[in-house]
């Protein structure tokens, strides 16, 4: 597991409003599970079923974070794979910005 990736996403989730569902990031070999169904987002490294899952490589994630890559273009180009609740996926931008 890449602890830097986990810590960065956890920090962003901790500082964001609850996302209103469960979200699983799969970044190479790292799982980041965010449960935003309660009063605040809870983040773990558990590989559980989620309302929405997002699969992305660390290099693409870094380009998104640094503003070098447009999220919609990355999805259209197949660099990001999204499964499940697309409405929840749209809220992810607040976690990456």
Proper CATH architecture: 2-Layer Sandwich
- For the secondary structure, the number of strands is 5
- Put simply, the count of helices is 5
Number of domains: 1
Q: Strand arrangement, largest sheet?
A: 3-2-1-4-5
Content of β-strand: 25-35%
Helix-strand makeup class = alpha+beta
**Can you give the mean pLDDT?**
92
Q: Categorize the overall geometry.
A: globular
Description:
- This protein has 97 residues and is α+β, with helices and mostly antiparallel strands.
- The chain has a single domain, classed as 2-Layer Sandwich (Nonspecific Lipid-transfer Protein, Chain A).
- It has five helices and five strands, in the order H-E-E-E-E-H-H-E-H-H.
- Strands 3-2-1-4-5 form a five-stranded mixed sheet.
- The longest helix is centred in the N-terminal third of the chain and has 13 residues.
Write the layout of secondary structure elements.
Elements: H1 3-15, E1 22-27, E2 30-35, E3 42-44, E4 52-56, H2 58-65, H3 71-76, E5 80-84, H4 86-91, H5 93-96
Parallel strand pairs: 1-4
Antiparallel strand pairs: 1-2, 2-3, 4-5
């Amino acid at each position: 597991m890449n602890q830097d990736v986990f810590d960065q996403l956890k920090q962003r989730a901790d500082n964001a409003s609850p996302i209103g569902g469960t979200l699983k990031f799969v970044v190479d070999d790292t799982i980041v599970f965010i449960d935003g169904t309660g009063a605040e987002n809870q983040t773990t490294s558990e590989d559980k079923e989620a309302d929405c899952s997002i699969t992305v490589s660390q290099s693409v994630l870094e380009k998104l974070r640094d503003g070098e890559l447009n999220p919609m273009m990355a999805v259209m180009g197949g660099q990001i794979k999204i499964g499940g609740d697309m409405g929840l996926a749209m809220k992810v931008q607040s976690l990456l910005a």
